[in-house]
Design goal:
The protein has about 260 residues and is an alpha/beta fold. Helices cover about 50% and strands about 10% of the residues. The longest helix is centred in the N-terminal third of the chain and has 28 residues.
Length: about 260
């Protein structure tokens, strides 16, 4: 009888162990629902970051110093200041190239660039030695596109040496006000039948090169054989067609595709 009880006890222990093992296996094999993913996912860019990148791509053609200053302005949340300076060839009162460029830049940069136009019927010497230069500097520009009154100087017998001296004086005053400010030069429009004037413009181009000043040679965009079609009757300013041609050249520079 004692032996029979031991056999029954042994069988019971085996049964308990068997069913216990089955229960544990079922518990541990149950899949966990929706486990957290350990894979890293690329975070989508915020609208501000994407917008900033897009705006910065527009300045691909700008001088490096101007690019750097523009990016700092973006960080500070302040509009970058661009001044368009020159003679009546800017066409400020007649939807000339300066107005067209201003509108295109301010629209493309969505207000992140503030453009101001400074147009004067004067020579380069009168500009830098009078109060007009103070008006420009009062705007505190960070970038200046200067048309240095080349055609006016030619008409008033102001030679290349004096014209270049005026540019140097303007640049010096500009840098004194803001050491990070950048100057870009461009010639006044070409005219038909001129002889000495083109030589003055060539000297201006060489001067810009020796002074390491960015020079926008928009003359390359004007058709040599039909200049009269792009100029007013006296050739002192472009006509509507000429302003459009000039503006498109500058827009292509300031707003990269």
């Amino acid at each position: 009888m004692k032996a029979f009880s031991l056999i029954i006890l042994a069988i019971g222990c085996v049964a308990v162990l068997f069913y216990g093992n089955q229960y544990w296996s079922e518990r541990t094999s149950t899949p966990v629902s929706n486990p957290p993913s350990t894979e890293s996912h690329e975070t989508s860019k915020s609208p501000d970051t994407a917008e900033t990148k897009d705006v910065q791509s527009l300045i691909a053609n700008w001088p490096e110093d101007a690019k750097a200053a523009f990016k700092e302005s973006l960080k500070d949340g302040e509009p970058y200041k661009l001044a368009l300076v020159g003679s009546t060839a800017l066409g400020k009162e007649e939807n000339g190239w300066s107005i067209q460029v201003k509108e295109a830049i301010e629209n493309a940069f969505d207000g992140k660039v503030a453009v101001s136009i400074f147009q004067y019927d004067t020579t380069s010497i009168e500009f830098v030695n009078g109060d007009k230069i103070d008006e420009v500097l009062g705007f505190a520009p960070q970038l200046v596109l200067l048309e240095p009154f080349s055609l006016n100087d030619n008409s008033n017998r102001v030679g290349s040496t004096s014209n270049q001296g005026s540019i140097e004086l303007f640049k010096r005053k500009l840098i004194e006000q803001n050491e990070d400010a950048v100057l870009i030069l461009q010639p006044t429009h070409p005219i038909d039948g001129a002889t000495y004037y083109p030589k003055q413009i060539e000297a201006l181009k060489e001067f810009a090169n020796t002074q390491d000043i960015t020079y926008l040679d928009h003359w390359s965009a004007w058709p040599e054989g039909s200049l009269r079609d792009y100029l007013g009757g006296t050739q002192e300013t472009p006509n509507e067609k000429g302003h459009t041609l000039w503006s498109q050249y500058l827009i292509d520079y300031f707003i990269a595709d």
